[in-house]
Every structure is written in C-alpha cells, then in structure tokens.
Design a protein that fits this description.
280 residues, mainly alpha, 0% strand, globular
Length: 280
C-alpha cells in the first residue's frame, strides 16, 4: 500500500514544483518574483491537492504529465525543439487517466491554431512532435479496436437522454462556489464534511483574482488560459455526475492560480512590510 500511495504523493510534490516554474512563464515580468511562490503554496495546501495526493489515483499522475505538456508547449513558443517534449508528455498523460484522453484530442489542435504563425515557421519540429505523439498513442489502438476504449463512457455517461442540457448544466455547475469552497459532496468528491476543494476563506481572493487575472497574465496567454478552463471541464461534463473533482484536476489547478492572484493583490494593499511579508 505504501508503494502505491508513494507514487501518487510523489507526483503531487512534482505538481507543486511544476506550478512554480510553469506560472513563471505566463505572468508578466513584474509578478515573477512572488506570484509563482504563492501559486505553489496555494496548490500545496489546497484540500483537493492534499486529498488526491494521499489517495492511489491515476488522475494525479495525469495532471502532472499534462502540466509538463503545458510547460514545454509554452517553452516551445521560444524554442520550437521543446514541442517534441511537449507532445511526448501529452501522449503519456492519455495513458494516466481518461480525462486527459479527451482533453489531449481537443486542446492540441486549438493551441496549434492559436499560435499557427509561429508553428508554420517551424514545421519541421511540429512534424517531429506529431510523430512522437503518434508513437506514444499507439498502445491505444489495441483498446480502440477491442471496443474497451469507449466502454468507460458507456459506464459513466449521462443516462437521462437529455445529453445537451445535462452537459451544459454540469459544465457550469463546476463553477459553483458551494462545491469549490463549501461542500464538495460525497464519494471521491468528498474531502471532508463541509469542506470544498478550497478553504472557505479563499472565496474573496478568488473573486479578486478573477478581476485581476488579465492584468497579471501575459496578454499572449489570455485566450490560451480561457480556452484551457473550458476544455478541462468537458470530460467531466459529459458524464452523469453533477460534481466529480477527480475528473477536473486541471480546472482546479487553474482555480488555484486565480486564487493566488487574489492573495497577491490583497497582500500588496498593505503598506506594512511585516503584514505584506506574512501574506506573500
């Protein structure tokens, strides 16, 4: 049991470290000193991150591998060679958990289209990356041909017959402050009674962060981040569950980012250096 849980805990720690380095790539220069540290701290102490790092769940590994994809993808916008590494980790993430299988199919063409001018100029590395991705996805052919690849959706998909309305309701339901900050429900969703994915006192920083996020994130990544928010919710929204956080770890990671922006902005309001240092 220790060896199984250790792997999940290890990837949880790697996620915290990745959070620091990845956030430093997307925020404006003025905020690179403190914000990545705050973001890493918010992830490290959040109930969702602690809970799923303690459990032996594949989704935790999927999140780490997907963040590695994001890290190298953003690095590839300055050095196209990194695109190969990005797609290698994206391919690996699809073997970790079901959510990443669907996210990968949607996110890659959208991101390439968004930065198409740059990638057209570096077609050689785009082709190399796609070859690497294809090789990492080859094992999925066995499950696709056997029919087991789509079997999980048959098990967890909506059974009401109202596919579109259920999808929309679930999609926007994941933005519910009650689920995020108050009570996440039962089963794997439940962290602890009357506890959401984040501590209730972080509600205010969350809304402050929403207001300030476009100021702090580099303008090149505004659409990038907004797109990722909705894409990360699609797999969970297609199922019959109202709220199932194990399927939305990428979304919870982004919410942590928004909260960290709010914490930073609130901290900067204090002129007293001791108070500001405590908050930041």
């Amino acid at each position: 049991m220790f060896s199984v849980r250790f792997i999940s805990a290890l990837f949880g720690v790697i996620t915290v470290a990745l959070t620091y380095f990845l956030s430093g790539l997307i925020v404006n220069k003025k905020y690179k000193r403190y914000l990545p540290l705050i973001f890493s701290l918010v992830v490290a102490i959040s109930p969702w991150a602690i809970h799923f790092s303690r459990r032996a769940v594949e989704a935790n590994i999927g999140l780490t591998l997907f963040l590695l994809f994001l890290y190298f993808f953003i690095r590839s916008l300055k050095n196209a060679k990194n695109f190969v590494f990005a797609l290698f980790f994206l391919g690996l993430s699809t073997h970790a958990y079901y959510s990443e299988r669907l996210i990968a199919v949607i996110v890659l063409p959208i991101f390439i289209f968004q930065f198409r001018k740059y990638f057209i100029e570096n077609k050689k590395w785009v082709f190399a990356g796609l070859v690497v991705l294809a090789l990492t996805l080859l094992p999925h052919l066995v499950t696709v041909l056997s029919g087991s690849f789509f079997a999980r959706f048959d098990q967890v998909g909506s059974s009401t017959g109202k596919f579109l309305s259920d999808f929309i309701r679930h999609l926007f339901g994941y933005f519910s402050p009650m689920y995020l900050f108050s009570d996440a429900g039962f089963g794997l969703s439940r962290i602890s009674p009357n506890l959401g994915m984040f501590y209730g006192l972080l509600v205010f920083p969350f809304f402050v962060g929403l207001y300030k996020v476009t100021k702090i994130v580099n303008y090149k990544y505004h659409i990038f981040l907004l797109t990722l928010i909705f894409i990360s919710l699609i797999p969970a929204s297609l199922t019959g569950d109202d709220f199932y956080p194990l399927r939305i770890l990428e979304f919870l990671w982004i919410v942590s980012f928004v909260i960290s922006i709010g914490v930073y902005e609130i901290g900067m309001l204090f002129k007293n250096k001791v108070i500001r240092l405590f908050l930041l």
